[in-house]
Amino acid sequence: MTRTILSRIIGPLSVPCLLLGLLFFAASLTPSLIPRGPEVQGILGGLVMGVGYLAGVIVALLWRAADLPVLSGRPARALTGLIAAGIVVLFLWVLGSSLIWQNDLRAKMNMEPADGLNLARILVLGLATFAATFLLGRLVASFFRLVRAWFYRVMPPRRANVLGVIAVAAILFVATRDGIVDRVVVALDESYEAAQALFDRAPPPPADPRRTGSAASLVDWTAIGAPGRDYITSGPDAAAISAFTGRPALDPIRVYVGRANGDTPRERAELALAELQRQGAFERKVLILASPTGTGWMDPGAVDPVEFMHDGDIATVAVQYSYLQSPLALILETNSGLDQAVALQDVVHGYWKTLPPEARPRLYVHGLSLGAWSSMHATNLFRLLDDPIDGAFWAGPPFPSAFWKYVQNQRNPGSRWVLPEIGDGSLVRYASHVADASQAQSDWGAMRIVFLQYSSDPVVFYDPASLWRAPPWMREPPAPDMSEHFVFMPIVTQFQLAMDLALSFGSPPGYGHAYFARDYIGPWVQVTAPEGWTAADTTRLIALCDGGFGEGCVTAGQ
Q1: pLDDT given for residue 382 in this prediction
Q2: How much of the chain is in helix, strand and coil states, percent to nearest 5?
Q3: What confidence score (pLDDT) does residue 349 get?
Q4: Model pLDDT, residue 552
Q5: For residue 442, what are the CA distances in angstroms to 112, 426, 437?
Q6: Would you give the end-to-end CA distance of the chain in angstroms?
Q7: CA–CA separation, 395 vs 554, rounded Å?
Q8: CB atoms within 10 A of CB 228
């Protein structure tokens, strides 16, 4: 009895659909932007194989619904055997070649080569993942049959079939998106907030009354959270900066407001402004409005170098908006970062523009990853035209960023999607690990905007439309850190890029989404034009970072 029920749930395997799934598996073995280990490759292959099998099932259903002819008998078996032999041979060839392709990509990113014995692990994990997805699909199909049977009692079969599909899709969507996922997100956010409220092992607040979180500060140290505390208490001081430049220096001002420091984005932004005023930030030469990543983390590799450039006569302010890792915050808490960035820029820029132009700091905006997206969203057209900021530096802008996409699509004819040229370069320039935004047809204008993006970064170059068409950068010759064997395949490429998104944060520094301090230095020079700065200074600061000043200059983006 149990075996009969189980067989009814699992159902028979379709050989043609299985062959199509194996073809998808083979396609997933080709390289993409980020090198994949055996575990990730096996899971990806199994998932894609399941998608291929499902695609075959759908095509078969449509074929039967259209009452198209079906080959049967000995000719069908002979043709199936011939196709199966060809697909198996192709799969084995691609499986063997995949190690060469992956190691070629790993070499481009200065990674150790992978072990040839991993091929067996890929196969085992791939088949296990496919089995799990197949079983899940059969369970959903069984659930559909139950729902359809109930509809059969009250309406004609055709209407019951259609409503059955709609009902099952709606139930699954609500259960995952509005049920399980929402509860997980809330639990994650609350758990991070609760964890950050436990400060028994936290360091004592700064003794210096000029620092954020001190006894004299307007910002409560116990509510700032670990990312903010690390940011406030790290970085170069006046002595370190002076030792590097040989000139007198100031202690840089760092203002940080945690999510728990205020109930709303506006309250946190106004608290940040008050703390900036208390510390005399508007008397400095440079003021940077920085948007942190999802967890509230500020990349020291982005902040430390620019403080050296301006002899410490600089203030940077950031406000936390989430406790989630950036990939989760990007998908599930998008508006939190956007709302907070808008509030901060509205409040600080609103005050800044009331000051006499000759007696206020130069104002810049900055963000990495999700922080870049929120910063770009806040830097709207009206703010650029009404008493504009002096410039912007955005690193690793995520693919949904509307402003980034608009600028990308304005690239000059013939310039590359991964490193485009915009107009004469007087307003917007691009940088990467092979370009520092110093080259352009014209000199800088009144405002300077630089995008830093690595050609191997899927957070930047993921394209939802890759489900059915190749992204723009795939229609161009591959960049130096891209594989020559990356070939577009509908559906499969979408899954490969989605997996790249998950892997990009663990890439070697200078690749993927791991932005490296040495690559921030040149763009910061271009955007902020430090007084008296030379190419030799840039070289020395890069050497200092590579040598490991503190921890900032060797820390890659998260």
Answers
A1: 67
A2: 55, 5, 35
A3: 94
A4: 47
A5: 42, 6, 12
A6: 53
A7: 16
A8: 30
Tokens of 416: 């590359």
Pairing of strands 314-319, 286-291: parallel
CA distances from 42 to 30, 112, 127 (A): 12, 20, 8
CA distance 436 to 452: 8
| Per-residue pLDDT reduced to its tens digit, 441-475 | 999 999 999 999 999 999 999 999 999 999 999 99
pLDDT of residue 1: 46
Amino acid identity of residue 361, one-letter, is P
Would you say 486 and 102 are in contact if contact means Cβ atoms under 8 Å apart?
no
- Picking from 439, 409, 443, 406, the residue whose alpha carbon sits closest to that of residue 426 is 443
Nearest to 396 by CA among 424, 418, 372: 372
Of the candidates 191, 291, 303, which has an alpha carbon nearest to the alpha carbon of residue 252? 303
The pLDDT of residue 75: 76
Q: Which letter does DSSP use for residue 75 in this model?
A: H
For residues 37 and 103, the answer to whether their CB atoms sit within 8 Å is no
DSSP H helices in 409-505: 458-461, 492-503
CA contacts within 13 A on the Cβ side of 427: 8
CB contact set of 422 (below 8 Å; sequence gap of 6+): 407, 410, 411, 412, 428, 429, 430
- Alpha carbon distance 228, 13 (integer Å): 55
Q: What tokens does 269 get? A: 């932004």
The closest of 371, 373, 372, 389 to 381, measured between CA atoms, is 389
Q: How far is CA 296 from CA 93, 199, 321, 324, in A?
A: 46, 17, 7, 9
C-alpha radius of gyration, the chain, whole number: 27
Run of H or E residues at 318: strand 314-319
**What parts of the chain have a pLDDT lower than 70?**
1-11, 71, 116-117, 160, 168, 173-202, 323-334, 381-384, 547-558
pLDDT attached to residue 555 = 43
Find out whether 404 and 397 touch, Cβ atoms under 8 Å: yes
Quick check: 540 and 244 in contact, CB under 8 A? yes
**CB contact at 8 A, 313 and 286:** yes
- Residue 512's identity, in one-letter code, is G
CA dist 94 and 29 (Å) reads 7
List the domain boundaries for the chain. Answer: 2-154, 197-454+515-554
- Rounded CA-CA distance 426/442 in Å is 6
Tokens of 273: 């402004």
Residue 246, both tokens: 């040989």
Strand ordering across the sheet containing 391-395 = 253-257, 314-319, 286-291, 362-368, 391-395, 448-452, 428-431
C-alpha angle 413-419-425 in degrees, rounded to nearest 5: 70
